[in-house]
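Example 3.2
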Amino acid sequence: MKFLIQRVTEAAVDIAGETIGKIGKGYLVLIGVGEGDTREVADRFIRKMLALRIFADENGKTNLSIKDVGGALLLVSQFTLYADCHKGNRPTFNGAGNPTLANELYEYIIAECKKEIAVVETGHFGADMQVSLVNDGPFTIMLD
């Protein structure tokens, strides 16, 4: 499993010109599911993501979590996080989980995050999406 977490001041996902998910301050999280991933793996990633202290406190130190600042989540499925570019110029995605497993875990992650965070927006699994964001910092962290 891979989570690419970007601290944002705003982010949105569009499909065919229609905005389907939009947030203000929070995280845009690109989620890659690999072969062999489970709900237990997802639970560890969710706990870590929600506990990350990467928002500034009153002294300007990155010391607050997304929960501490009332931030939102925009969760987007992204199998291309499993791109392997070691041979040639065309990436392979052999490490990505099969679509059925990936969609099941993506939906599970969404449901679990909604238990902890008031505003959770999403992309649409398997769709051709246009993602826009204002990366705050920039601050980007890869959990894998």
